[in-house]
Amino acid sequence: MKILNGAALSKKIKSVLAIEIDYLVKKHGRAPKLCIVLTGDDPASTSYVKSKQKSCNEIGILCDLRLLPYATSQDELLALIEVLNNDPETDGILVQLPLPKHIDQNVVLQAIDYKKDADGLHPMNVGLLNRSDDAIIPCTPKGILSLLKAEDIPITGKHCVVIGRSNLVGKPMAQLMLRENASVTVCHSKTRDLPHLTRQGEILIIAIGHPNLLHADMLKKGAVVVDVGINSVDGKLVGDLYNSIDVQDIEKKAAAITPVPGGVGPMTVASLLENVVEIYKRRCAV
Ligand code: NAP
User: Fold this and answer.
1) Strands 62-68, 183-187: pairing kind
2) Whole-angstrom Cα distance, residue 178 to residue 272?
3) In Å, what is the CA distance from 267 to each residue of 113, 133, 202, 204, 275?
4) What whole-number distance in Å separates Cα of residue 64 and Cα of residue 56?
5) Is 234 tagged catalytic?
6) 213 ligand 1 Cβ < 6 A
7) Which one of 49, 82, 187, 192 has the fewest CB atoms closer than 10 angstroms to its CB?
């Protein structure tokens, strides 16, 4: 069983980007800039934001971190987004999710200028991706695709089964795999006879947000398995693929697996950096 090492590829992508940014700064006289807006102090979100900020700093992207209190109103957040939309120095805007319960996430994501939408979650980018057009692609699915391609995993004509249909991961992942000429099945919590479908997955992508669902008898022999999940079990970070019964049998049956940590997570950050540089280049070109 091969380990698909997202941490190593992410490092490589970052060093290539750092060289490109160095060249771009000389050419355009300014560095790319990402503004991250974090509302509240959720520990997981704070840790993700810190990791994104650190990665930006490492490769020469300016990172403007806006920390807002949990009690920030929707109107206050929308007012900040408008300022950032109109700020010529800000290339990418990322609103860290989840937002406090009193704020409508869809309204906020839609308020971001879609040309500055570093996370690719604006409805315009969702539509462009669905049309296989020139979209800014959500970071986690984009990172997974980059990893599969870098590892020379064939996609065309393969049956890809995606478990999870969130706007953040499952749906854009399915669209991307379709664009890459896979035949795609999307499963969710109301799917009947999940094992019948997962057993057909030559590429199986699991993004459900809890462990203990998948067992070895639900897997096609030789499947490539991508584990998106981030869960804590007994204080240990594990993916959605983790189970307490036959995780070793899953590893024996699969041809390749993304580890947690060190698989999809670092690729998500690398893809965010790529998105920011892409947005910057598009803005400098006009
Ligand atoms: P989400 O919005 O909660 O969506 C979970 C999806 O899984 C839903 O579509 C749900 O179905 C489906 N699901 C839940 N239980 C299921 C079951 N028993 N059988 C089949 N489908 C089931 O989560 P998300 O944002 O997509 O994230 C998923 C996981 O990935 C989380 O652990 C998250 O932390 C992780 N994540 C990791 C990264 C990274 O960079 N590594 C990035 C993003 C997310 P319904 O639609 O029917 O409810």
Assistant:
1) unpaired
2) 22
3) 24, 22, 21, 17, 12
4) 10
5) no
6) yes
7) 192
Count of alpha carbons within 13 angstroms of residue 128, beta-carbon side = 15
Give the residue carrying structure tokens 């959605």.
240
DSSP for 250-273, written as a single string: HHHH-SEE--TTTSHHHHHHHHHH
Nearest to 185 by CA among 197, 195, 173, 172: 197
User: In the annotation, is 14 catalytic?
Assistant: no
Whole-prediction pTM value? Answer: 0.98
Distant-in-sequence, close-in-space partners of 6: CB < 8 Å, separation ≥ 6: 143, 147, 258, 259, 262, 263, 264, 265, 266, 267
CA-to-CA distance for 161 and 182, rounded, in angstroms?
10
| 236: amino acid identity, one letter | K
pLDDT digits (tens, 9 = 90+) for 151-200: 999 999 999 999 999 999 999 999 999 999 999 999 999 999 999 999 99
Ligand 1 pocket residue status of 271, Cβ below 6 Å: no
7 close to ligand 1 (CB < 6 Angstrom): no
Q: Using CA atoms, how far apart are residues 136 and 199, in angstroms rounded to an integer?
A: 32
Mention every residue, 6+ apart, whose C-beta is less than 8 A from residue 8.
none
